[in-house]
Amino acid sequence: MTKGSMEPAFHPSLSPVQAEKNLATLLVRGPIHYSALNRAIERLEVRFRNYCAFYSHGLWAPGLVITGEMRGSTEQYLPMAEIRSAFRHFFSATLRYPLSDESSPFQAATNWLDLLQRLRLSQDSVNPAILLKKLVTDEPERIRFLFTTLLPHHHGGCFLRYPEQLHHLEGWLRRRINHLSEEVRVLDAACGTGEGTYDLAGLLLKCGIPPRRQQIHGSSLEPLEVFTAAHGSFPHDPERQKHFRTSVEPLYTAQATGNMLFFRDNIMRYPAQAEKPYDIILCNGILGGPFLHAPEMIENSIAALAKRLKSGGIILAADKFHGGWKKENPPARVVEITQRIGLEVHHGEYGIAANKKAV
After folding, report:
1. Rounded Cα distance, 209 and 279, in Å
2. Would you put residue 220 in left (φ > 0), alpha (ψ -120 to 50) or beta?
3. In Å, how far from its chain's centre is CA 7?
4. Kind and range of the H or E element at 75?
5. Rounded to whole angstroms, how far apart are CA atoms 52 and 73?
6. What digits encode the pLDDT tens for the residues 215-229?
7. Which of 17, 90, 175, 278 could form a disulfide with 185 if both were Cys (CB 3.0 to 4.6 A apart)?
């Protein structure tokens, strides 16, 4: 673990025993007993009975086309504020770490019907009181729900998501291969569930950098993402889990995961004095998007990452944001911010590549 990084921190492992041990540091196991949550469930039971009595439409089911009238009636009789409060108690009782408002899908949701649709929950989940009662007693179901809500499908990553970026980085590595130090340090900042981090390990091997010379780190603010990246565990999505583990098995066979570490960290954190800098930093899918779009936040993030970069090192950033975010934060703005910080910036199909001048 590097000095200045945050807990939790997990080394990659496909061992079920190790995964279970690490998951227990993040989640409360067994039945949940929490009086504030029980009282909130009782209030929701009353709310839902009134909702059923006065709601003039059929109850929600997956695939339902939700109208404004449905939203209005639902909010009138089953207010999102009360549901949000109950689930705030639920997360407090079941997680061993504080959940930020940014991480909770309940915080930004304005209507219960839209949230059910967004999280792809089952028809049985339409009554939030019944759903919560099941979650506090059924541990496997609770674990699936926590992963569903905190690692939802629409946050899904994939391997080789930015092939042009990897191609650009391969050229950079091959040009500098004789100038790199014995230990090649790489950070995948805001790594999500880690697919891009493993892509980096494969690229270093392809460029002839053996595992003993690699130090590859992946960081995320969400502890369950850190866990999933380290263990390829998707309790809510067995197919994705199978694909993930099949994809990373060659790296385990090549012993390329021994010097990898996933940990919780904030990309706006400046390095500690004794913290070792990185040769390569990736920061994909976040700068200018829904989680980090204010210009001052973008500038603070790039400035902090630049401080963690070696002289002569490179920062790469790419995204697949939809047009709305591109309009709010066009690539030219991110380039201008990066140049103002003092990095030499290039922009192409691979996204942004920012080099720190060698001294």
Report:
1. 13
2. beta
3. 15
4. helix 68-77
5. 11
6. 999 999 999 999 999
7. 278
Tell me how far CA of residue 19 lies from CA of 174, 230, 237, in angstroms. 36, 8, 16
Dist. CA 94–CA 38, nearest whole Å: 13
Separation of alpha carbons 359 and 340, rounded Å: 18
83-87 LR contacts (CB < 8 Å, sep 24+): 83/44, 83/112, 83/128, 84/109, 85/40, 86/37, 86/40, 86/41, 86/43, 86/44, 86/128, 86/132, 87/128, 87/132
* Residue 288 banded pLDDT, cuts 50, 70, 90: confident
Please, what sign has the CA dihedral across residues 96, 100, 103, 106? positive
d(CA 72, CA 336): 43
187, 217 Cβ separation under 8 angstroms: yes
Residues 6+ apart with CB under 8 A from 65: none
Domains of the chain: 6-19+156-355 (3.40.50.150), 35-150 (no CATH)
List C-alpha distances in Å: 297 to 134, 144, 279: 40, 33, 23
The SS3 call for residue 225 is helix
Which amino acid is located at 340 in the chain? R
Backbone angles phi, psi at 315, to 5 degrees: -110, 130
Task: For residues 189 and 229, give the distance between their C-alpha atoms in angstroms, rounded to a whole number.
Answer: 13
Q: Which of 13-22, 120-129, 202-211, 321-330 has the lowest mean pLDDT?
A: 321-330
Q: Which residues contact 185 (CB under 8 A, 6 or more apart)?
A: 215, 217, 276, 277, 278, 279, 280, 310
Question: Is the pTM here over 0.90, yes or no?
Answer: yes
Distance between CA atoms of residues 66 and 120, nearest Å: 14
Which DSSP symbol is given to 153? G
Tokens for 324, please give them: 């709305």
Confidence grade of residue 352 (pLDDT, cut at 50, 70, 90)? very high
